[in-house]
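Protocol step 4 of 6: structure prediction from sequence.
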Amino acid sequence: MVLVWALMAGALRLVQAGAALPLWGVCIIVFGLAWVGQLWGHKVEGQKPDFLKDLQFLLIGPLWRLPFVYRALGLAVLGEAVTGEVVNW
């Protein structure tokens, strides 16, 4: 975890120093490295990632974030449209 933090802090310093790579480029690289690290961890554990067995596991993360996206866009979230109350999960 400390190694990941150090890599991210170093990447942000490069971006702040005016590196040729924009922030979104750094974010894509960090995202890719995080996936590589996650898959490597699964290999070390000897277990396949669950989303390879069932597409349901791959879709749970984005669906969990969907209410927050709806609120940010000003759209009603299920239950809020009926009761008018904001549900804090």
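Step 5 (inspection) to follow. The helical segments are 2-16, 23-45, 55-73, 80-83.
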